[in-house]
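Lab meeting, item 3. Inverse folding demo.
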């Protein structure tokens, strides 16, 4: 396959002045007629006229009304064209009903829908399918479907047709079409300047009752973007559609967002607190893209983080404002360490702005998204919140309507603040997680912190330069008072010292508060000091971080030396758990120890080979120990977290349920599932029902409840996804793989629905001890199913192959088993470009 390089960027030779599309819908033979005015682009080098096009049947093409016979390849067409402006007309036939890749125009449960980002539009018609070609689209849809939607504002409609016009120039990846038997949950929003916008969430009949929460989240997001970023909505209508078969979470098509139904449909009976929170965040994320992504888009796909990093950053600010800021920050850091750090430290490591790719869909990664958002957080911390707002205003003023680059983005900050961001830009070009060591010195009232930074080599990047690290630090006096409040030290050198003068006693430093830089901090500090920070740190993040470090050290000691649990740490943690002035959600995060893959990662970072069985056994021992030690604390926590009000998915109630779930999980170790059964029987919402079911499965007495749950919910595909995943995750590693294997034979299992596939196989891949079973059964099952999925849905296959990315951490036997499975995938006949790139990178 061909590799595309950032350095080879050239502008397209023509501008698309307007685009008229007519769709005549038919499941196996949809006709698409395109009429496009092209005019030479004065800023582009001379080139042949080339339009992307894949899996299209060309019916006819004409230039200025005269039929032409273009030269066709499997990538697109070329054709001689006049030297001035011309009208391009083209009719193609496509087969949406056979499109299981879910890219381009496809069908989901009888409904037509599209997914064009990144390069799906070329499966709809011949077009310059690149984000820097922006045009005004007018769309006519012909078909019997009662509802027919596209981007922009509605135009004429009548018997068997509907027209749409989007006045905002956009790249083809933001095109969308939906048609089918749909019903809407309506709403409306009046913008700050008084414009009334019609809102709709469109769903399959039967799902109407699951839209109210999403609608509220949409309105709240619209308001927030006006208040915080000064951004108003810019069309008369905003439509959201829920689709069951979808490769990712959702898509920000202009005025017509398409959502995976799991990321928009919600009700207390069928959705967990975590589902609600995620839905709120994704609705916000897609809505925020209207400015950061749509009004200002990307020049090319290498600039993907321009829209994704910024939009993730904006949605995390939104969630912090709506819910608890420390809880959100801790959750984001857990996620960053769980998904981005392994990526950054393994064979798939790439810069936030990659420099080459074979298949761009493989670069919608935790690095581009989540590290991309961290980089923006660092920028904001460096320049301060006011300058950040000023720079963002300038960004929107200067680049509205542009397809922009990271250079444009940084220039706005340089112009708004007078800062030179040359060194900071390394965050976009240099891959890998920096490791920072800290040493300290105390003399005559002066405290010195010395930081050294080093970024290990990553594929294609052997030598790393120092990064700019905005390191938030505070100092505590020995009695727990904060003597130096948080300040941001700007580290730019490989080694750099900072002094604090005039202190009465040697302070305890609290370093990288709020996780201000996304690094691995290597600092030798005693258990006493960590316990001190756990008890006293005024920064809630670092208080949690101190506990996490103690938990990690305890786990590692148990694994490596056979020591017992560290009771001093457990006593410190108990004090936190008993402190009912602390948010229950925060206490729940304290109680949740590092997961198995985090421990494997830390073991690897510290030069040990992780043993998945030993990690699992340690977890069992430690959990049992905690349960027994806290036998009188647990009933108190269960009582304290009981919610008597009507169900609300807000931060307050869900925090209580989260702490309650943690307490139930320990309680189940002592009572064999009695409390879980009682909770299951009484549950009137999915959060309580599901946490109870999980504990019943874990207790070994879950089969009857699993059956009852299935019988109760078999009509609800999103709940049944949970049922598939939960039983795999709840069973011991020795049974989980076999259960997953059996579930792939269940009548409700299907390879064509990504949610079901991920619920089942993702559960195995995410279950450390099961996936890494010594006999290789986990690896083999994954490889079998990924090989089968590749012909059906390359994008989801490739994405799930990254489960193997940490393979070099493990022992020689496991490495050999994984390598054999990856080689088996590589050897598959007609392997997709997506999967071949991913597995190829992991093997090289
Ligand atoms: N922009 C889309 C992701 C498209 C993924 C294409 N493989 C959703 C989002 O980030 O909002
Ligand atoms: Zn996004």
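The presenter then showed the designed sequence:
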């Amino acid at each position: 396959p061909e590799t595309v390089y950032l350095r080879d960027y050239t502008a397209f030779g023509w501008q698309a002045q307007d685009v008229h599309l007519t769709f005549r819908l038919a499941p196996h033979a949809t006709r698409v007629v395109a009429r496009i005015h092209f005019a030479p682009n004065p800023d582009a080098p001379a080139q042949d006229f080339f339009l992307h096009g894949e899996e299209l049947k060309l019916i006819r093409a004409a230039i200025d009304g005269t039929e032409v016979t273009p030269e066709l390849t499997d990538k697109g067409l070329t054709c001689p064209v006049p030297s001035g402006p011309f009208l391009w007309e083209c009719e193609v036939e496509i087969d949406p009903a056979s499109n299981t890749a879910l890219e381009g125009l496809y069908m989901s449960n009888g409904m037509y829908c599209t997914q064009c980002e990144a390069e799906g539009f070329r499966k709809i018609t011949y077009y310059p399918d690149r984000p820097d070609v922006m045009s005004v689209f007018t769309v006519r849809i012909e078909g019997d479907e009662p509802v027919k939607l596209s981007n922009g504002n509605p135009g004429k409609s009548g018997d068997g047709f509907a027209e749409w016009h989007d006045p905002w120039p956009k790249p083809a990846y933001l095109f969308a079409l939906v048609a089918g038997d749909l019903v809407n949950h309506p709403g409306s929003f009046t913008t700050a300047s008084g414009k009334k916008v019609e809102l709709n969430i469109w769903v399959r009949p039967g799902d109407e009752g699951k839209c109210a929460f999403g609608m509220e989240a949409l309105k709240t997001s619209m308001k927030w973007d006006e208040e915080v970023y000064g951004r108003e909505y810019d069309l008369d209508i905003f439509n959201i559609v829920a689709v069951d078969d979808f490769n990712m979470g959702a898509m920000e098509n202009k005025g017509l967002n398409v959502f995976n139904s799991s990321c928009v449909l919600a009700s207390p009976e069928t959705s967990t607190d975590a589902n609600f929170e995620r839905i709120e965040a994704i609705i916000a994320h897609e809505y925020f893209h209207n400015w950061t992504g749509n009004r200002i888009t990307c020049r090319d796909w290498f600039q993907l983080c321009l829209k994704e990093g910024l939009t993730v950053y904006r949605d995390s600010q939104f969630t912090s404002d709506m819910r608890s800021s420390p809880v959100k920050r801790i959750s984001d850091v857990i996620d960053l360490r769980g998904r981005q750090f392994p990526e950054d430290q393994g064979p798939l490591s790439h810069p936030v702005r990659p420099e080459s790719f074979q298949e761009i869909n493989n670069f919608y990664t935790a690095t581009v998204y989540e590290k991309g958002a961290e980089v923006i957080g660092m920028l904001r911390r460096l320049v301060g919140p006011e300058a950040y707002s000023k720079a963002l205003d300038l960004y929107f003023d200067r680049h509205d309507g542009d397809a922009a680059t990271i250079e444009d983005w940084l220039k706005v900050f340089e112009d708004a603040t007078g800062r030179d961001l040359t060194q900071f830009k390394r965050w976009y070009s240099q891959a890998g997680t920096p490791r920072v060591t800290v040493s300290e010195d105390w003399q005559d009232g002066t405290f010195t912190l010395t930081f050294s930074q080093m970024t290990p080599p990553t594929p294609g990047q052997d030598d790393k330069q120092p990064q700019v690290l905005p390191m938030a630090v505070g100092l505590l006096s020995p009695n727990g008072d904060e003597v130096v409040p948080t300040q941001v030290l700007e580290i730019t050198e490989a080694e750099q010292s900072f002094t604090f003068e005039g202190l009465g006693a040697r302070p305890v430093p609290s370093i990288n508060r709020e996780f201000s830089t996304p690094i691995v901090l290597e600092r030798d500090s005693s258990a006493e000091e960590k316990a001190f920070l756990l008890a006293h740190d005024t920064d809630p993040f670092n208080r949690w971080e101190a506990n996490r470090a103690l938990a990690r050290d305890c786990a590692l000691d148990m694994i490596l030396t056979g020591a017992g649990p560290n009771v001093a740490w457990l006593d410190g943690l108990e004090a936190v758990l008993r402190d009912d002035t602390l948010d229950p959600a925060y206490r729940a995060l304290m109680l949740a120890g590092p997961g198995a893959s985090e421990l494997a990662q830390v073991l690897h970072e510290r030069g040990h080979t992780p043993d998945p069985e030993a990690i699992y056994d340690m977890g069992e021992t430690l959990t049992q120990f905690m349960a027994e030690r806290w036998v009188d604390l647990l009933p108190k926590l269960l009582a304290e977290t009981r919610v008597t009000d009507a169900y609300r998915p807000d931060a307050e109630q869900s925090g209580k349920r989260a702490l309650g779930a943690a307490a139930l999980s320990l309680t189940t170790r002592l009572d064999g599932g009695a409390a879980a059964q009682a909770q299951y029987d009484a549950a009137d919402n999915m959060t309580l029902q599901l946490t109870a079911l999980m504990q019943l499965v874990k207790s070994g007495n879950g089969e009857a409840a699993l059956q009852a749950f299935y019988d109760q919910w078999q009509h609800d595909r999103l709940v049944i996804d949970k049922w598939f995943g939960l039983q795999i995750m709840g069973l011991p590693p020795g049974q989980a793989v076999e259960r997953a294997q059996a579930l792939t034979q269940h009548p409700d299992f299907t390879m064509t629905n990504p949610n079901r596939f991920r619920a089942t196989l993702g559960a195995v891949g995410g279950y450390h001890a099961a996936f890494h079973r010594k006999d290789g059964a986990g690896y083999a099952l994954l490889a079998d199913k990924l090989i089968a999925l590749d012909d059906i849905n390359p994008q989801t296959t490739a994405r799930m192959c990254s489960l193997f990315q940490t393979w070099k951490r493990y022992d020689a036997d496991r490495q050999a088993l994984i390598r054999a499975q990856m080689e088996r995938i590589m050897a598959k006949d007609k392997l997709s470009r997506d999967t071949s790139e991913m597995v190829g990178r992991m093997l090289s």
